[in-house]
Amino acid sequence: MMDAAPIRAFSDNYIWVIPGERDPARVAIVDPGDATPVLAALDTEGWSLGAILVTHHHADHCGGVRALRSRFPVPVIGPAGETIPERTQGVAAGDRVELEELGLAFEVIDIPGHTRGHVAFYGHGAVFCGDTLFSAGCGRLFEGTAEQMNRSLGLLRRLPGETRVYCGHEYTQSNLRFALTVEPGNSASREYLEKVQNLRSSGRPTLPSTMALEIAVNPFLRCREPTVQKSAEQHAGRTLDTEVEVFATIRRWKDGFN
Ligand SMILES: [Zn+2]
Questions:
Q1: Which residues lie below 8 Å from residue 240, measured CB to CB, with a gap of 6+?
Q2: 23 C-alpha vs ligand 1 centroid, how far in Å?
Q3: Which end of the chain has the smaller Cβ count within 10 Å, N or C?
């Protein structure tokens, strides 16, 4: 199973480094919003860059592509439906990304909602899901609808429970405060919060998560649970008839949550 390493960028972004299967020092990176910390990490760790994967068009995920490409003429793989700087291969649902030189291959999953063309890369027991699924939370709906986002999360939810979940930001602790507001009785979330607090107080990342853990703690993957539905109905002050309505209600609730 893959073990990707984080490079920190901006205040809470992670640029993930995927070791090649042939030579772990030859790497692919995911979502380089900033070239500077990537160049520093390549230098310190003795990695060489073999490919760049991009999940969506936001600058904090692809703002470093141009500067990296000017140094390393590597493939840049990103969503076909979005404008990604220096993209060499546009991908969409069902495509397979073959990075032969690195011995890596990924399946592309379309996960619109945060942005219209957002994709995830799934392979080697891991999923790189950008700003769609966060640990204990999900991305904001900037370009898509609640219905799209709920469907996208449903696709990720179907991945094997042991799948490692590599998200684009370190939001876990604040997401869990919200998750526990929606489901105060969720003991898995309480246990997880304790673990997350320990990791954060020693400055360590809480990621990757796993899909099984997310299904247990993430309210946005739990819209069919009676506890989540009831809580959403209380917040909305009315009956919610569909999973999408429950999802839309807790997404709006989270938007105004501090
Ligand atoms: Zn984003």
A1: 229, 232, 233, 246, 249
A2: 31
A3: C
